[in-house]
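User: My advisor asked me to double-check a structure prediction for Outer membrane lipoprotein-sorting protein before group meeting. I don't want to rely on an old file, so could you generate it fresh from this sequence?
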Amino acid sequence: MKNVCEYFRVLLLVFPLLAFLFASGNATETKTGTPAAKSPEATSEETPPQVKMGLEPKAVEILKAACDRLAAAKTMSFTAVVSYENPSLLGTPLVYATKSEVTLQRPDKLRVITPGDGPATEFYYDGKMMAAYAPAENLLAIAEAPPTIDAALKEAYDLAAIYYPFTDVIVTDPYTDIADGLILAFYIGQSNVIGGTTTDIVAYANDDVFVQIWIGTEDKLPRMLRAVYSNDPAGLRHQMELSEWQLDSVVPEKAFIPANTDTARPIDFVHPNAPFPPGTQHQKASDASQSQGKSK
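Assistant: Sure, here is a fresh prediction for Outer membrane lipoprotein-sorting protein from the sequence you gave:
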């Protein structure tokens, strides 16, 4: 706090001095009517530096080491805090965040508990079935599932638009997903701030997204990622912080099965925007609502 006060005290002294000098300069220019001549260096247009696309070996080595560490883990748990920007009516973006507690056991078990922000959700996969549960509404959707985590994640997205930003962290071969279409990778440096440990900072990109990642120097675990998508004209930023890592710990089998299958209200495992089945009360109500909207 003392440093902050000193900083503002200096500003209070400097700003009047700058204002005086600026006013004096304007007055001199007004008197003479001839502004000072600019040097050739100042008038010449500066050529922006050329960015050379390529894969820096050190950056690739760090990415591969992190991916190998993740792929080798038999079990894994971590907490993911995802924040993303959305444009506001003022034009400047607002930030929203979600928190997910992730547990998996390769090759065929996954649990994702998301308490907020937004509606709380739970996802379970045990190699045979996958379940999506909404605790506040006590709604449970169950569907048959393929035999691997990778395939189950794709099936969940195709059937019900369920997607997790940390998917690249938990798939069987994380580096294959990163290397697909990779056009740029370079090493930035180290940080002692992110994740409470020393991290190596790497930037990488393909034609769709530019990512900056912080990876633990010693344990090779990702601590934070920031992404900007190339097709987003606003350049909104997406950030994911990963913490509370536990690898190869014992996870009970019941962790991947919802506990309230007997008391929850069953619903279909479908896309949230899917049309209601013909003849149902929801479908009739939807048709009536659309008819009223057209008649207005």
